[in-house]
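Bumping with the actual sequence this time:
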Amino acid sequence: MRTLWALAIVALAGCSGSEGRVDPRIADKSRPLVMLTHPAEPPYSYTNETGEIMGTDIELARKIAAKLGRELKVESVVFTDILPRLKNGTADFGIASITITEARCRDVDFSDPYEENGSCFLYRAGTSRPRMSQIASLRIGAEADTVQDIYLCRHGCDPARFYHMEDAIAALERDEVDAVYFDAPPLRAYAERSGGRFVATPLVARDSYGVAVDKRRPDVLAAANAVIA
């Protein structure tokens, strides 16, 4: 837990400001801002019954676009595509409960944290509660390339990796994994809706979530920080 907090502090120190390159997209006010999200994490970002992407992350994105006087285009992608697309300039920013880390700051800029939360385990009721000290001997599901995936590996676990958290939950339902490790709010929501079939543990580690921004878009970074403030 202390390691993650230390990484967050280092990341915040090194994530402000862009590389100083002027991007023509800044001056083109007619171009919508492209925001990437992974809509599988209620209440942050999810798809409702009509197929509309909504959630608190989307509301934050709309406020950032409004701050810049720009239209907003929301694109649904798998989580692993967000940072590469920001790095190659095919999107302007991403919001998807992205934990601020020193390694990610090499590819994108991060806003100030807009939420402090953390990760927990989700497991089947009636089975033993998973503990980090036991994970090397357990079958743990995680979303690929997330901070939870990295954290599990650092603690001696080779997790079963999924590109969508719903697939990990389905694997837990089928007894193919013993637990799922992910952001606490969506896992708690799954537990509440499960009718007692799933249980969410208290926080195992704390994380800081930030808006990830293309390094060539200091205007978006400044707008995000202004909205968050």
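The tokens above came from a reply further down the thread. The chain is about 35% helix and 25% strand.
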